[in-house]
Amino acid sequence: MFILLWLNISCKKDDRQDVYIQPTFTTGLESNSLEPGSNAKQQNSDMNYEIDLAPVEPFVESSSEILSEGNENWNDRPGVAVFDFDQDGDLDLYITQKANHSNRLYMNDGEGIFTDVAKLAGVELISSHSTGVITCDLNNDGMQELYVGAWGDPEDQLDFRSPSDIQGNTDTLFLNKGEGKFVDISDQAFGGSRNVRSATSISCADINNDGWLDLYVANVGAHDFRTFNSPSHPGHANLLYLNNQNLTFTEIASEIGLAGSQIRMRSTSGEPILFKDTKTGKTYEGWDPLRVDRLGNQVGEPVQQTHATLFFDFDDDLDVDLFIADDGDTLKIFKNDSSKDSLKFTEVGEALGIDYSGAWMGFALGDYDGDVDLDVFVTNIGSHAMLRKPQDNPTGSCEYHQRFRWGTCANFMLRNDGIGEIDGIGRSGIFVEVGSSIQIIPNRILPPEALISEKIYPSLPVPSGIAAYEFGFGTTFFDLENDGDADLYWLGSNKNMGAGPGGDVYPGVGRLLRNTGLGDFEDITVEAHILDIADVDYTVLDISNKEFNPQLQRISPRFHENGKGVAHGDLNGDGYTDIIGTNSSGNIWSGNSENLIAAQGPVFIWLNGGGESHWITLKLKGRMAIDGTGSNADGIGARVYVTFKDANDSETHTQVQEVYAGGSYLSQSSVWLEFGLGTASVVNEISVRWPSGREQIIKDVVSDQIMEIIEPASN
After folding, report:
1. Averaged pLDDT for residues 41-58
2. CA-CA distance, 650 to 643, in Å (whole number)?
3. What 8-state DSSP symbol labels residue 594?
4. Which H/E stretch holds residue 3?
5. Is residue 336 included in any domain, yes or no?
6. Total structural domains in the chain?
7. Strand order in the sheet with 249-251
């Protein structure tokens, strides 16, 4: 069976055209397509089942009302983390900003109001150009630490080897001291290996199953030198900090092959494009070692630019494996074959046939097809590239790479097909890209432009499924209406917001895809009131109503924000999952003039409209927090199965989730696991597989509660 699967993967990749002729760029932003049209109808008619979807209970964007400092944010790379920093039983927020603007630590009062206590807590980082953020318990005391990434001054023309402001481009680790206080322990924790590169997303995982969480820091390149308009587009090496169990860490990424690898940069004939170091005689693919910053120091390193990383057990062998999303390079999977005494990771993405060059941005982990295993959604530039003239000359952009069989700009859905054997590698998880084959009912008001056939160059087919959808950065799976299946949200844009120069290049408004329960989706972004646009008027959404005016109501890509981070969590404790989105600040046109003014990038908090479905939220506590044995205190890496019977039928339903920290771009969702139960008022069984290997089964649990599960003692 595996051989047949392998042949399918190989044929899919190799049968692509060597070169695509792509369309002349057109945005279509002056008017919306208000009818789904023939493309939407055709896609609907291809479905082999009837869909009777419930009405949409919309979100309420509440940031201005519930955040003490409002939703204003000043940052090019704003991250958000959702966690309970003060251990009072509700979820708080940490949001990053650029230098001269305080990062925000919003304390949830349990009554729906979030007050910024960053200064009181000691986590402002005023001098830091902060980026990604992660929270995890690094000393197993039951409280989550705070790691904040940073990158250098985006306008100083200096790379990391010659920093002008060491505080501005250095990552920071805060120890949670309790009682609302943190202390900076970065120098003590990392010594000379403290990250001074250009951090994006950070992940926590116990890579060697010793019960202590380790840190993996993804780096891109200095803002001044990041470009994808050239064959040379290097990044900065990633860092892996192994926990020494005493709040100090040893950096080992290069030692075990996880710092990064040479970029795959090929000519139109498929040959490597090499740059020579005239001092050493060495050649490098995708990196020009002769490029220097204004102080004459070398720019970049011979590695890719990493936007996001995801740790989870993709091959069911009780250790966490690593997915890496690189911009201008290949999608990667590193299989973990480590032990407490020996660390080993093996790259298997190429063997699985998913090592496409793209602009990979973020990950979401969830069981989209309901077969009780975990699938992976990966964001990319999306279908915008189908609407513009292709790049003829070799560059790092996916718009060049997608002309060939080795590249793509499409968002990916990696379906988990279980466990198989790979020659030369052995046992492995088998993941297959199926995004184009997933049926999606387009939004009736704002369908993707790529579904409108006349906007696609005549020689190209109209893309289907997820491949027809737009730019993504941050993303997450969650259960929108607690009906027991995984819905999907992402947002993303680049260059600028719609009101500024470059805002028409990647006009992403965000997308919410509601699961039909059969592994297909309906795009309900507009009806759910979750467009990544400020001040939308959702009053009239009937396109046949003469009062409906998408331009006046701001229901158009021309008004998009510049989306970056996404995280989820139940912020108000009603059992329904809420979504937080961050946006970049930038310059916009001032009225009708050619003058530019600075504009903030709003933080949006979309509170779920709720409903009548049942739910259960699980907080896992590893034994290390109790007696120093078993799994890490946060339970990161634990896999949980929830089984219940819907009141409307006798069929048993099982859901699966895994506790993980990271994945989404720059951001972290709550590590509490939220399960929707539909009409079931009782959970028949909760099964937990802890990272320690211990198994735990809990039966007959009443729904509609937040439940703490403590890892059992060793038998």
Report:
1. 53
2. 12
3. S
4. helix 2-14
5. yes
6. 2
7. 199-205, 214-219, 239-243, 249-251
What average pLDDT score do residues 273-291 get? 96
Query: To the nearest 5 percent, what fractions of the chain are helix, strand and coil?
Result: 10, 30, 55
Mean pLDDT of the residues in the chain: 91
Question: How does DSSP classify residue 692?
Answer: T
144 within domain boundaries: yes
In a domain? residue 74: yes
Cβ atoms 354, 431 nearer than 8 A: yes
Structural domain for 365, as ranges:
67-261+303-607
3-state secondary structure 24-73: CCCCCCCCCCCCCHHHHHHHHHCCCCCCCCCCCCCCEECHHHHECCCCCC
Closest CA to 495 of 619, 633, 397: 397
76 in the same domain as 177: yes
Calpha distance 501→563 (Å, rounded)? 16
Residues 401, 425 share a domain:
yes
pLDDT at 339: 74
Domain match, 374 and 450 both: yes
Q: In this structure, what token pair is assigned to residue 80? A: 């958000």
Strands (E), 123-192: 130-136, 145-150, 172-178, 181-184
Both 367 and 472 in one domain: the answer is yes
How open is the CA angle 629-626-207, to the nearest 5 degrees? Answer: 45
How far is residue 493's CA from residue 508's CA, in Å, rounded to a whole number? 5
Structure tokens at 53: 């979807």
Cα–Cα dist 456/445, whole Å: 20
Q: Which tens digit of pLDDT belongs to each residue from 620-647?
A: 999 999 999 999 999 999 999 999 998 8
Looking at the chain, how many residues does it have?
A: 715
Residues near 4 by Cβ (< 8 Å), separated by ≥ 6?
none
pLDDT digits (tens, 9 = 90+) for 544-603: 999 999 999 999 999 999 999 999 999 999 999 999 999 999 999 997 778 999 999 999
d(CA 702, CA 684): 9
**Is 225 part of any domain?**
yes
592 and 667 in a single domain? The answer is no
Which pLDDT value is given to residue 459?
66
Please determine, for residue 77, whether its predicted confidence score (pLDDT) is greater than 50.
yes
pLDDT score, position 13: 38
Please, what is the Cα angle at 567 between 304 and 352, to 5 degrees?
A: 45
Rounded to whole angstroms, the Cα distance separating 338 from 343 reads 4
This prediction's pTM:
0.93
Cβ–Cβ < 8 Å for 9, 352: yes
On whether both 442 and 486 belong to a single domain, the answer is: yes
Which residue among 580, 607, 634 closes a domain? 607
> Do 578 and 678 belong together in one domain?
no
Q: Are 218 and 235 in contact (CB under 8 A)?
A: no
Q: Strand, helix or coil at 188?
A: helix
Neighbours of 19 (CB within 10 A): 12
Spatial distance between the Cα atoms of 694 and 317, rounded to a whole number of angstroms = 13
Domain end marker among 607, 642, 668: 607
